[in-house]
Amino acid sequence: MTEAVRVRRGLEEAIVAGRYRPGDKLDLTSISAEYGCSRTPIRDALQHLSNSGMVQIRPKHGTFVSRLGVRELAERFEVMADLEGLCAELAARRMPPGTAAEMTAALEACRRFVQEGDPDGYYDANSRFHRAIYAGSGNEFLRAEAEKLQGVLEVYRRLQLRVGDRMARSLDEHRAIAEAVLAHDPETARAQARAHVQIQADEYTELVLRSET
User: 17-31, 91-105, 110-124, 179-193: which has the minimum mean pLDDT?
Assistant: First the structure.
């Protein structure tokens, strides 16, 4: 894990947990001291957070927290569900053998991380699994849009994996998607992929609501 990724993930979790509130200005000196790194990886991390909508970078003024609300997240998850569903449907029709092997290898890595109880490792393998399906769609525009929105939702999809048995259930959902893709069953692949993302949205919404009570 690079310094920029370490800082980014730490800041993402701090923002989602409410340590930084919407409108708060992020102080680079304090962040540098907390993470024990130079400002270069911090700037890289903040640029990524800006791209995902979690902060706003205002030239000559600084970087400010702009965490997405529950409604805004629900809207993005709704679009993500359709993108994932379409990718899976097309992958069931078009995925080449090499990409299918990548998807299967990522699924096996997910299984190992569930056994080890490692949600961060699981999420990285999970991302490889989904990217293989995006690539398997054979549609580069769709792939780019799916990867872009996946980046926006990354922290929210990652954090819900830490709740209860969510990792194990996510693995079961991945297996159902992979089985449909490999069986060249586009309708089932689409339905399973859409349901998988909707479950993630529901899990994260419940997590937020519990944290606010």
Answer: 17-31
Q: Which helix (H) or strand (E) holds 65?
A: strand 62-65
What average pLDDT does the segment 28-39 reach? 91
**Cβ pair 142, 86 in contact under 8 A:** yes
- Give pTM, 2 decimals: 0.77
Higher per-residue pLDDT: 183 or 166: 183
Secondary structure element (H or E) that encloses residue 25, with its range:
strand 25-26
Please report how many Cα atoms fall inside a 13 Å half-sphere around the Cα of residue 179, on the Cβ side. Answer: 9
89 and 177 belong to one structural domain: yes
**Which of 106, 164, 160 is closest to 136 using CA atoms?**
106
Residues 108 and 154 in one domain: yes
- Assign 138 to helix, strand or coil: coil
DSSP state of 63: E
- The pLDDT of residue 94: 96
Specify the pairing of strand 25-26 against strand 62-65: antiparallel
Identify the residue whose tokens are 């997240």. 73
pLDDT of residue 116: 94
Q: What is the CATH number of the domain that holds 100?
A: 1.20.120.530
Cα separation of the two ends of the chain: 34
For 33-51, what is the HEC assignment? HHHCCCHHHHHHHHHHHHH
Distance, in Å, from the CA atom of 136 to the CA atom of 182, rounded to the nearest integer, reads 11
